[in-house]
Amino acid sequence: MAVDYLVIVVYLAGMLAMGWWGMRRAKSKSEFLVAGRRLGPAMYSGTMAAIVLGGASTIGGVGLGYQYGLSGAWMVFTIGLGLLALSVFFSARIARLKVYTVSEMLDLRYGGRAGVISGLVMWAYTLMLAVTSTIAYATIFDVLFDINRTLAIVLGGSIVVAYSTLGGMWSITLTDMVQFVVKTVGVLLLLLPIAVVKAGGFAEMKAQLPTEYFDPLGIGGETIFTYVLIYTFGMLIGQDIWQRVFTARSDRTARWGGTVAGTYCLAYAVAGAVIGTAAKVLYPKLASPDDAFATIVKDELPMGVRGLVLAAALAAVMSTSSGALIACATVANNDIWARLRGVVRPEGEQHDEVRGNRAFILLMGLAVIATAIALNDVVQALTVAYNLLVGGLLVPILGGLLWKRGTAQGALASVAVGGLAVTGLMAAYGILANEPVYYGLFASLAAYVVVSLATRPTDAAVLAAWRERLAGRAPEPENASETVSEQVPAAQ
User: Fold this and answer.
1) Cα separations (Å) of 338 from 27, 115, 142, 344, 357?
2) Among the four 67, 97, 231, 485, which has the fewest Cβ within 10 Å?
3) How far is CA 150 from the centre of its chain?
4) φ, ψ for residue 248 (rounded to 5)?
């Protein structure tokens, strides 16, 4: 495996080098958190596809293909559908807001009262999303270096935390572009055709496996519906996704670049399911479906190619992990810590803001590594993340964009009721049950509508300022605290 080791080491060294380069470029809050809002179509598409296709989409997607066949593509397919919906219907308006976090958007829309509680829910989501990708390091590094799980998580996590802390969004964008190329070559152009050939082609796969493995709906209609609720709607409102939308240099870039990325996700979904189906033919009795990816790579690919495909898996894991990490740190610093302290920084302290956000990335990175060591199941961790996101924040965010009668009190009630309902129902029914997101989302919607109609409409001045921002006619606020302080008096 000497050649494979060399490929991986060169790849990891390149990630750190890009982190160092990004550190020299990220000199302001805007540069550090949203790459100066300057990404063009090609770079925007690559980095958006890279962040949404992580360890769960690659290792978990292949695992679902191993377990269910072609219908195992539905989890990643619904992610692609969500990204397409976001890009076509919402991305232009989101980009024009010129904010840094989803909670800042809620403050603008509702008058500065929803920030901390929505920030807590979004922080929990982004933390768990980063944890899912970090858990996936263990599988890959075990194949590479035969080291124990904890050491594998620390090794992979340290690299991601290092380049993310150094250069912020610029480092992450550059590494994402490399990761997008490596992932495309490794998974789509190499592993997919090799896996099918090794399994004897589609005819042999059909002969060896039950017919339900080739039923597009074999995974079950209820499961598909749950995936749509969790992942398609989750793509519309996640801080990690919105933070990438904020990097687009224009409305057109956000719309068309995201559409390209969403289409790529659909192809990636099918590829993962086919690879998993081929692995079922080759290895019918694996202990866990999530072992399918690493096993087929380790046993079926030639030297050198194996290293590249494992680098592709690392690329998938690292891109999502770094994107979720900077989102988690941005929310923790700007939506929670700064608000609790009531700090409004002068405009001249941009470099200090970079230093503060950098410190939060390091702190959150350590928290992610520790949590990943304590947990084990990738799909369960991802389900917790999206259940919290969709149950707690989908209704007030989409309601704010689509229904002008929604109020701050309705938004707060929706976040609180939905988040508590999802958490309680996961404890009662189990993490992977469908009921938590169904009932939690219904409770969130009911609370939003009832409380909004029972309270005074949002102040006309707040709505007027909101419409100005949606139209792209208002200046960008320097920090979250200023957004809050400007809007609260209007709401009162």
Assistant:
1) 20, 11, 40, 8, 11
2) 485
3) 23
4) -65, 140
Q: How far is CA 86 from the centre of its chain?
A: 13
pLDDT digits (tens, 9 = 90+) for 239-251: 889 989 989 988 8
248 beta partners? 39
Grouping H, G, I as helix, E, B as strand and the rest as coil, residue 394 is: helix
69 φ/ψ sector (left φ>0, alpha ψ -120 to 50, else beta): left
Q: Between helices 115-145 and 102-110, what is the axis angle to 10°?
A: 170
Confidence of residue 379 (pLDDT cuts 50, 70, 90): low
pLDDT confidence tier of residue 308, bands split at 50, 70 and 90: confident
DSSP 411: H
Q: For 194-209, what is each residue's pLDDT tens digit?
A: 999 999 999 999 999 9
Nearest to 10 by CA among 321, 315, 299: 315
Structure tokens at 272: 């993962």
Which of residues 484 and 66 earns the better pLDDT score? 66
Closest alpha carbon to 364 in 245, 238, 240: 240
Residue 348 class from Cβ within 10 Å (0-12 exposed, 13-18 middle, 19+ buried)?
exposed
SS3 39: strand
CA distance 143 to 145: 6
The radius of gyration of the chain's CA atoms, rounded to the nearest angstrom, is 22
Nearest to 321 by CA among 30, 15, 95: 15
Q: According to DSSP H, which parts of 331-459 are helical?
A: 338-341, 350-374, 378-402, 408-429, 435-454
DSSP string, 223-269: HHHHHIIIIIHHHHH-HHHHHHHTTBSSHHHHHHHHHHHHHHHHHHH
Mean pLDDT of 372-379: 74
| Predicted structure pTM score | 0.83
pLDDT in tens, 336-372: 887 777 654 444 444 457 888 888 999 999 999 998 8
Distance between the two ends of the chain, CA-based, in angstroms?
Answer: 66
Indicate if the pLDDT at residue 7 is higher than 80.
no
Q: Which region among 117-121, 217-221, 249-253, 266-270 has the lowest average model confidence (pLDDT)?
A: 117-121
Indicate the residue type of 161. Answer: V
| Whether the Cβ atoms of residue 447 and residue 321 lie closer than 8 Å to each other | no
Q: Is 440 helix (H, G, I), strand (E, B) or coil?
A: helix
Place of tokens 């404890």: 427
Closest CA to 111 of 463, 414, 346: 463
> CB of 258 within 8 A of CB of 245?
yes
Q: Is the pLDDT of residue 17 over 90?
A: no
Output phi, psi for 234, to 5 deg.
Answer: -60, -35
Strand partners, 39: 248
> 160: closest CA among 345, 326, 274, 304?
326
